[in-house]
Amino acid sequence: MATPELTDEQRAAALVKATAVRSARRVFKEELTRGEMSLAEAIRRAKADEALAGIRVRDLLQCLPGIGPKRAQLVMEEIGISLARRIRGLGQHQVDALVERERR
Q: Name one GO molecular function term (predicted).
């Protein structure tokens, strides 16, 4: 499928939107890393915001203290979450399992 031809205005608007999404995701991840919100709160906020809902679960978990790439992968495999899954694609049972796992 060919990429649609965009006008200069459309291209500029897309660039502004992409920059805003990246900035929102960066701030969100920093807040989670600093412990300003729990995993449950982070998932709730992400489900309500389309820009944040596109974050991969693996990246979300790696923002938590003490969880690196390997542990994030192990947690996801233990719960049965695909490594490519984004927050918007999590089911309620998966969310519950992640929150319960964080409490341990």
A: nucleic acid binding
Q: CB–CB of 61/76 below 8 Å?
A: yes
Separation of alpha carbons 8 and 12, rounded Å: 6
Residue 94: partners with Cβ closer than 8 Å, 6 or more residues away: 79, 80, 81
Rounding to the nearest 10 degrees, give the CA dihedral for residues 41, 42, 46, 47.
-40
pTM greater than 0.90: no
Give the SS3 label for residue 54.
Answer: coil
> In the structure encoding, which two tokens stand for residue 19, read together?
């920059």
The H helix count followed by the E strand count for the chain is 6, 0
CA distance 95 to 98: 5
Hey, where are the domains in the chain? Answer: 11-103
pLDDT tens per residue across span 14-72: 999 999 999 999 999 999 999 999 999 999 999 999 999 999 999 999 999 999 999 99
